[in-house]
Amino acid sequence: MSSTASAPRVLATALLTASLTLFVGCKQETQTFPVPASGTVEVEPLKATKMELPPLFRDIERRTFQFFWDTTNEQNGLTPDRYPSRPFASIASVGFALTAYPIGIENGWVSRNQAVDRTLLTLKFFRDLPSGPQRTGKGAYNGFYYHFLDMQTGARYNSWVELSSVDTALLMMGVLFAQSYYDRDDAREKEIREIADTLYKRVDWNWLQKNAPLVSMGWFPESGFIKHDWTGYNEAMLLYVLALGSPTHPVSPDAWTVWTRTYNDTWGVYQGEEFLAFGPLFGHQYSHVWIDFRGIQDEYMRERGIDYFENSRRAAYAQRAYAIANPMKWEDYGPEVWGLTASDGPQQTLQDYRGEQRQFRHYSARGAGLRENFDDGTIAPTAAIASLPFAPEIVIPTTVELHERYGEFLYSSYGFLDSFNPSFQYDIPLKTGRLVPNQGWVASDYIGIDQGPILAMISNYRNDFVWNVMKRNPYIRSGLERAGFKGGWLEPAKPEAGKEAAAPATPKPQTQAEKDAATARALGEAESRVGRGDSSQTPPPQAK
């Protein structure tokens, strides 16, 4: 059902489930709540059910933190794209590493002094990295950094490596996180804040706007600007928040309007969920690592009656439903084995599977949705685990099942290896990973941009840690506000007790069309929850 009403309709009832159990799929009772045919129905954004985490999650956190602490180059702060193969550094991995270090402090895994040393070393290295338009010997240009850098020198790794706008954005999220976290009146922490400010202000977003107001995906010294621009909906939400919040090279507010212009192409119903779709789950996770989207909405989400957090929740449920349906008949897919994102895979090859030719890939984006679909039977643990804040009631059982069923070969020193494929049992040369007898293919590497969301999102689920730190950053707030986000934590603090509050503004009367749209959204919300057996929210209040 559409979330908006094109003509007046009488919507009599909405069904909401009255119980929720840990293992989704048990028999559920339903209760009927009347929804008025007219008037305003205020639908609060759906909040995930808070559940206690099993001890396994603490072990995952510690091991995943150690990935960043142990594999990062102690001489320059560069974090490898992957380990143990460790071919080059990834600037996005560095962004996740800078976010990981304070998580380590808060959990007592490293001292604050150790993390300050490592963070300051990293920021100084990026500040002093040679910059310029030359094809070799440089690591940056106009404030942007090359996607992959030499682990020792920090120079562009190879001629196929682009100056990347979105990977620079992921790096800058870590930089600004460090700026907000290290807030003590200490010379070294003050220096962290100052260098972070310098790095962020250097990024010349306008330079990459060859098709303003959009931002290009990047630049090559050999061929110039990448022709493709970032248009929504995907992980580049965070890029535009950063570009809008820049005090030195900001993009204009209409960048967000144009970014969202393509949203309707991927808004629809998939696997029983109505949401803004993007096939791989990383597109629903990366921006949420640092930004708490609960209760804040841009114009598009205000019209849809939800927020981006709820949208990601629906995306997780849709992927699980896809795995249960398992239209391609891959091995082991089901209610507790699911999760498609960008990840390693066995090999670029065509093989016979169940009597037909199937394509398999090595590293690739994998997903299920209205677009950006590809599925070759490869499951990535990060896809489910990094969805923990959105849907703990389905993520917790899945994480436990992945560990219990596959842990012997999938879970090791730094937590879950990147991915596995129970359907791939072909004796051919592999791009990466190995075959486990009778179990299929399993990755041999950990990948930084998959490890980072696991650690940060478990932390956010426990106590909103990364989110709360970033709420203090004025650049993030400015970027969100210039994009049109309102509500929730972006609203001014309520006056203290005893102080007179300003008289509320008289609300603008709603038109009949607006009333019908609000009522339609209420039913759409209810139907979506019923479809997945979710009763974590009370029924919408009666309109007055």
- The structural domain count equals 1
CATH fold call: Glycosyltransferase
Biggest sheet architecture: 5 strands, antiparallel
- Spatial strand order of the main sheet: 5-6-8-9-10
Terminal Cα separation, in Å?
25 Å
Secondary-structure arrangement, i.e. CATH architecture = Alpha/alpha barrel
Helix run count:
16
Shape: globular
Rg computed from alpha carbons, rounded to a whole number of angstroms? 23 Å
Description:
This protein is α+β, with helices and mostly antiparallel strands. It has a single domain, classed as Glycoside hydrolase 144 (GH144) (Glycosyltransferase). Helix content is 38%, strand content 12%. It contains 16 helices and 22 strands. A five-stranded antiparallel beta sheet has the order 5-6-8-9-10. A three-stranded antiparallel beta sheet has the order 19-21-20, with no helix packed on it. A two-stranded antiparallel ribbon has the order 1-2. α1 packs across α13 (448-463), α2 (91-106) runs parallel beside α4 (165-181) and α3 (112-128) packs parallel to α5 (187-202).
